[in-house]
Design brief:
Helix content: 25-40%
Number of helices: 11
Distance between the termini: 42 Å
Number of strands: 14
Strand content: 15-25%
Largest sheet: 10 strands, mixed
Order of helices and strands: EHEEHEHEHEHEHEHEHEHEEEEHH
Structural class: alpha/beta
CATH class of the largest domain: Alpha Beta
CATH topology of the largest domain: Arginase, Chain A
CATH superfamily of the largest domain: Ureohydrolase domain
Low-confidence stretches: none
Length: 386
């Protein structure tokens, strides 16, 4: 397949590798360069690429430029004890129209997904999340999307697709393959009550910033995700200034890195994107360095996947049945590999939602169920099937 729309990494970045240790990440992965050509994808497990598209960015024009700054920091890092083949495919430049760029992104992500290669997308504006989502159409399965963002980005149906309205397009446009949407880290004053009511009416999940400051709560949410989209504006401005929409409150650097690692550990996550980086607002490369470390932690997580559900079957798990008053019992399962927990929802055989039969949860959810408190995520998942 031809990937003529991908441009190689700039020679200035490649030349910088000479100064790095032979064990550094940049010297141990395949990089698309003018000298070495396009990487061999036959054994690749993770593919990094940038998208230089900002025409649908709202109040953040310039995002997607100078992605070399992120790579400069990423290439300097040392890999862990990883067994994963990684390639850097270069950048998708702006097409003649925004739709041309979208087509290139969808084409590339579709190819990578079909070849079991996890794309790491460095954006560009966050409307690319919609384009990433559309690549899953060819897989003919429903998917879960997790967005780490201070805003819901719902917009209105009348709006054209942009970085603040992509979610409404995902929810409303056909084919509709979205099973669940989760927002992590929203800040109430940036979102209307109408938007929050809409998410609740759709039985989607939204977690305020304060709720997920204990980042261990993020793990079961990420474990159920197929697509992860991170707006770098979800990070505190003092930690990541390279975004014209950044704000005083948000995640700290170590918290967003932990979230990225949880995304990597998830056996279901098959694409990961970080958007809205705008180099002209950066200070001493601080944001570029943080994004490089987020990518590092995601790759670290991929290397430590336990291959739990859906790769293994629940028949090997410990089963716990909780009798719920005036309702059917809830079945809980505990992995024999990792000790992680799931709860089962009732799905008709061969239903298109069958791959969502087990909902990730925590041991605390199980304990609360034994006290007759039905887990909210179980309730919402059941309601989607009515």
């Amino acid at each position: 397949m031809s990937f003529d729309f991908l441009t190689p990494i700039k020679e200035t970045v490649i030349a910088h590798l000479v100064l790095q240790s032979a064990q550094s990440l940049g010297n141990t992965i395949q990089v698309h360069s003018a000298q070495n050509g396009f990487p061999d994808l036959s054994t690749a497990r993770i593919a990094i690429f940038g998208v230089q598209e900002d025409r649908n960015a709202v109040d953040n024009i310039g995002c997607g430029e100078n992605l070399r700054e992120i790579r400069r920091y990423l290439y300097q890092l040392f890999p862990g004890n990883w067994q994963t083949d990684i390639v850097d495919l270069g950048n998708i430049q702006k097409g003649n129209t925004v739709k041309d760029t979208y087509f290139a992104v969808t084409t590339l992500v579709t190819y990578l997904l079909k070849n079991n290669i996890i794309p790491i997308i460095i954006g560009g504006s966050q409307d690319l999340t919609y384009v990433n989502y559309r690549a899953y159409d060819t897989l003919e399965q429903t998917v879960n999307l997790v967005s780490v963002d201070s805003k819901f980005d719902i917009g209105t149906l009348e709006e054209d697709l942009n970085s603040t309205s992509y979610l409404s397009k995902i929810v409303m446009e056909k084919p509709n393959n979205l099973f669940n949407f989760s927002n992590l880290g929203y800040q109430t004053y940036f979102n209307s009550q109408e938007e929050l009511d809409l998410l609740n009416s759709l039985f989607f999940d939204a977690y305020r910033l304060g709720e997920v400051k204990d980042v261990t709560k993020v793990e079961p949410i990420m474990r159920d995700a197929d697509i992860v989209s991170i707006d770098i504006g979800a990070v505190k401005q003092s930690e990541a200034p390279a975004n014209n929409n950044s704000a005083p409150n948000g995640f700290y650097g170590e918290e967003i890195c932990a979230i990225a690692r949880y995304a990597g550990i998830s056996d279901k996550v098959t694409s990961f994107g970080i958007y809205e980086y705008n180099a002209k607002f950066d200070v001493n490369g601080q944001t570029a360095h943080l994004i490089a470390q987020m990518i590092w932690y995601f790759i670290e997580g991929v290397n430590y996947r336990a291959k739990d559900y859906p790769f293994s079957t629940k028949e090997t798990y410990q089963k716990f049945i909780v009798m719920v008053e005036n309702d059917d019992p809830i079945n809980f399962y505990k992995s024999d590999k990792s000790g992680r927990w799931w709860m089962e929802i009732n799905i008709i055989t061969n239903n298109k939602y069958k791959r969502h039969a087990l909902i990730p949860c925590t041991y605390q959810d199980y304990l609360e169920a034994t006290e007759q408190k039905i887990p909210e995520r179980w309730y919402k998942a059941q309601r989607k099937l009515i």
